[in-house]
């Protein structure tokens, strides 16, 4: 009897918490479906009579130029992620398998990039980018995003490459594979898991970045999407159904990526924790 | 063979150059700037340690430092302890997976989006929180204006976003504990609570350490959420170190002073995670 009461109690607490967690999600979705007029005349939980979701998104995208920034961020996430993946898998491969002299100090130097809060880099980067003409350019943003992704990615690849049995490598070497072939034919094709982890975490990070976007860009030509989303909800308030439509629109890529790669989430979490 | 050596460095070069040129070199430059008075336009003037000594008498910095500590403490209470409690209670419930996914959907949403969503939740006139409270006759509350309520309101939004990650990690840790252990204790007559304190919690220790370290490091660095929701206001009352650094540097153009704040922040963050990083690296390096 007592067990039953306790169990019911647990369910009640958990269900209350679940409802609290769902409330904001419910609020965004239902609000994004209302026209501004309807939103103004209703309580938030009342259902819309007419679905205005598509027109809300259209206005959010056109008026705040979300589309332009959406494309910018897509470019950053993909190219930043790909550059980090190539650069760090190559480096990880070399550090573990070619074992050059100083491989440990080199690793530690690169890895130290995960230790510092981003604020440590902002001022010099702002100045550097202004001086060499990378300020407010796509190229500059791609470079800085890739650089910021490299330390964690290297940590992941380096760890993974230690688990590939040495025999495979020896066999390949006997068949006459040089380092480049070894990397492209043997190591890279086996790197599905670390690549998925890196892609999931680093592309999501780039997509969600606000700080570097604010400091290193000024115009639509280079602004990433989160900066323009943040600007949408400026101090003056703005029209909430449009803003919520904007929130949903700009969250689609990361949600999709997450759904696609969710089985790598746990292993990535564990690694990213280790890489902190 | 000599050729191979050259190639092995060539493989490392792109990653090394990216990190050294865009992260490591700027970091040292940042330390250098912190000894200068500089508005970003005219020539920097050397000022020794004056940026650092000025911190102690700057009431904005002191508020910001205090807020940062509040953030860290309550991040541990809300997201770590909360995540642990929810993980423990969720285990073995019917619909465990559905409940679990509800808690971690917010992980996929950015801090900017989280901030915007919660701004709407907290909006005084049309906000979700005040609308619901009005149903039970509570007057309108200015969540993001009153001090210290605003910091706690921000912390709730933060918890909504962060708790899921910790919960998932704790669930993972819980699954790794052999069920016989807890069952044996129960048979010997210990209550659920005793079993948790004496068996489950000690066995979770590795996970707990990881989660706490990560939560602390993240909460020291919090920026986006505060920037989007309050801009650190009103009157700089909800700033944390990361926000203060940004404001001093890019709104007020006290570049040297901003650099000094970023260094204080780095020292604190690294101090907190140093122990942990050391043990990770040691384990990692022993391995290979």
Could you list some keywords that capture this structure?
heterodimer, A: 276 residues, mainly alpha, MetI-like fold, 2 domains, 14 helices, B: 288 residues, two-stranded antiparallel ribbon, 13 helices, 2 strands, globular
Report on the structure:
The complex is a heterodimer of chains A (276) and B (288). In chain A, helix 1 crosses helix 13 (240-260), helix 4 (66-98) runs antiparallel to helix 12 and helix 10 runs antiparallel to helix 13 (240-260). Chain A is globular, with a radius of gyration of 24 Å. Chain A is mainly alpha-helical. Helices cover 76% and strands 0% of the residues of chain A. Chain A has two domains: 2-51, no CATH class; 59-275, MetI-like fold, CATH 1.10.3720. Chain B has 288 residues and is mostly helical. Chain B contains 13 helices and two strands. Chain B has helices at residues 2-33, 50-57, 59-90, 96-104, 111-122, 128-135, 149-176, 179-187, 192-203, 205-220, 224-229, 241-251, 255-287; strands at residues 36-37, 45-46. Chain B has a two-stranded antiparallel ribbon with strand order 1-2. In chain B, strand 1 (36-37) and strand 2 (45-46) form a beta hairpin. In chain B, helix 3 packs parallel to helix 7 (149-176) and helix 10 packs antiparallel against helix 13. The longest helix of chain B is centred in the C-terminal third of the chain and has 33 residues, at 255-287. Chain B is globular. Chain B starts with a helix and ends with a helix. At the A-B interface, helix 1, helix 4, helix 5, helix 6 and helix 7 of A face helix 1, helix 3, helix 4, helix 5 and helix 7 of B.
Describe the protein's topology.
The complex is a heterodimer of chains A (276) and B (288).
Chain A (H helix, E strand, L loop, with lengths): L1 H31 L3 H6 L11 H11 L2 H33 L4 H9 L7 H13 L6 H24 L4 H9 L4 H12 L1 H17 L2 H6 L8 H8 L7 H21 L4 H11 L1
Helix pairs in contact in A: 1-13, 3-13, 4-7, 4-9, 4-10, 4-12, 7-10, 10-13, 12-13
Chain B lengths: L1 H32 L2 E2 L7 E2 L3 H8 L1 H32 L5 H9 L6 H12 L5 H8 L13 H28 L2 H9 L4 H12 L1 H16 L3 H6 L11 H11 L3 H33 L1
Antiparallel strand pairs in B: 1-2
Helix pairs in contact in B: 3-7, 3-10, 4-7, 5-7, 7-10, 8-9, 10-13, 12-13
């Amino acid at each position: 009897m007592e067990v039953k009461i306790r169990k019911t109690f647990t369910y009640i607490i958990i269900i209350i918490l679940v409802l609290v967690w769902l409330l904001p999600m419910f609020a965004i979705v239902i609000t994004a479906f209302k026209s501004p007029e309807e939103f103004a005349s209703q309580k938030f939980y009342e259902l819309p009579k007419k679905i205005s979701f598509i027109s809300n998104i259209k206005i959010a995208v056109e008026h705040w130029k979300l589309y332009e920034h959406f494309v910018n961020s897509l470019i950053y996430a993909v190219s930043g992620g790909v550059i980090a993946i190539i650069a760090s898998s190559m480096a990880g491969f070399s550090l573990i398998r070619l074992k050059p002299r100083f491989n440990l100090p080199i690793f530690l130097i690169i890895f130290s990039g995960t230790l510092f809060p981003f604020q440590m880099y902002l001022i010099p980067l702002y100045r550097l980018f202004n001086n060499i003409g990378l300020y407010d350019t796509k190229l500059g943003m791609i470079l800085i995003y890739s650089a910021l992704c490299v330390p964690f990615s290297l940590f992941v690849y380096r760890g993974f490459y230690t688990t590939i049995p040495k025999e495979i490598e020896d066999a390949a070497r006997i068949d006459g594979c040089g380092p480049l072939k070894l990397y492209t034919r043997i190591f890279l094709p086996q790197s599905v898991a670390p690549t998925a982890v890196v892609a999931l975490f680093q592309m999501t990070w780039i997509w969600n970045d606000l700080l570097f976007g604010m400091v290193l860009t000024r115009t639509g030509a280079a602004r990433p999407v989160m900066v323009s989303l943040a600007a949408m909800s400026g101090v003056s308030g703005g029209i909430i159904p449009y803003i919520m439509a904007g929130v949903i629109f700009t969250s689609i890529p990361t949600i999709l990526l997450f759904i696609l790669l969710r089985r790598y989430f746990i292993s990535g979490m564990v690694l990213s924790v280790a890489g902190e | 063979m000599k050729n191979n050596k050259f190639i092995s460095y060539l493989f490392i070069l792109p990653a090394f150059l990216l990190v050294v040129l865009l992260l490591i070199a700027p970091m040292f430059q940042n330390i250098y700037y912190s000894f200068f008075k500089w508005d970003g336009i005219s020539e920097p003037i050397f000022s020794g340690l004056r940026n650092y000594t000025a911190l102690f008498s700057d009431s904005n910095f002191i508020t910001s430092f205090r807020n940062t500590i509040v953030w860290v403490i309550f991040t541990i209470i809300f997201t770590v302890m909360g995540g642990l409690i929810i993980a423990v209670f969720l285990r073995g419930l019917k619909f465990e997976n559905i409940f679990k996914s509800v808690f971690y959907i917010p992980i996929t949403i950015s801090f900017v989006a989280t901030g915007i969503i919660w701004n709407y939740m907290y909006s005084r006139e049309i906000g979700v929180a005040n609308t619901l409270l009005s149903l039970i006759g509570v007057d309108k509350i200015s969540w993001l204006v009153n001090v210290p309520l605003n910091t706690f309101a921000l912390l709730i939004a933060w918890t909504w976003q962060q708790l899921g990650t910790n919960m998932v990690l704790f669930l993972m840790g819980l699954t790794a504990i052999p069920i016989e252990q807890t069952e044996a204790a129960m048979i010997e007559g210990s209550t659920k609570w005793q079993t948790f304190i004496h068996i489950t919690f000690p066995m979770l220790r590795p996970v707990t350490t990881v989660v706490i370290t990560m939560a602390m490091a993240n909460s020291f660095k919090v920026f986006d959420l505060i920037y989007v929701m309050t801009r650190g206001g009103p009157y700089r009352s909800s700033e944390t170190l990361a926000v203060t650094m940004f404001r001093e540097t890019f709104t007020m153009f006290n570049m040297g002073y901003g650099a000094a704040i970023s260094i204080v922040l780095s020292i604190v963050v690294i101090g907190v995670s140093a122990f942990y990083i050391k043990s990770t690296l040691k384990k990692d390096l022993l391995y290979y």
